Automatic annotation (TrEMBL):
This is 3-oxo-tetronate 4-phosphate decarboxylase. Residues 11-190 form the Class II aldolase/adducin N-terminal domain. It comes from Litchfieldella anticariensis (strain DSM 16096 / CECT 5854 / CIP 108499 / LMG 22089 / FP35) (Halomonas anticariensis). Its cofactor is Zn(2+). GO terms for molecular function: aldehyde-lyase activity; metal ion binding. The keyword RNA-binding does not apply.
Amino acid sequence: MSMHDDNRLRERIAMFGKSLFDRGLTMGSSGNISVRLDDGGWLMTPTNACLGRLDPPRISRLDGEGRLLDGDKPTKESFLHMAMYGERPQSEAIVHLHSTHSVAVSCLPGIDPCDCIPPLTAYYVMRVGKLPLVPYHMPGDSALGDAVKGLAGKHSAVLLANHGPVVAGKSLEAAVYATEELEETAKLFLLLRGQNPRCLSDEQVAELEARFPRD
Ligand SMILES: [Zn+2]
């Protein structure tokens, strides 16, 4: 990847970070974004950085082993991204947020841990699909990385219990859009809870999955 492309990607990470922050999908210094580079390394948002005010040159660049090459120290949650990339060679970007409605769903009793949100809309099925719940672990616990790794091969998005979603995509845009779709569908799910909503049928979901395969 040329230096020019690298700079452009840094700017796009900052642009999407600001967009997510400005709309309240992330707050404080929580949330992180990463993008896979052609040389096998990654760009990753720095530790303690606010996604609303990222300085592109300070975004961390890591080599294929996860060592810092330039920029600030990467997010302490980089292991979540690495766990996901390790199982998903087709994924080029990952977004992890503590977005309110998704976190709310992750705290609810009685949700299906294999599929936290039912298929309420076609776009949710197309962009997210089945969303498994990863049991709660303390931040930084390496067992959390192992738990994500166990699910990431089959799922492009997972929901960390009492924490938030980790979402992979085949491009930075795709990962951001899938994260937004997840957050909005979590909001719908909460609005409809207890009202026995009509969901898409198994047949309708199968039809979407055949027509619009996710990566
Ligand atoms: Zn987190």
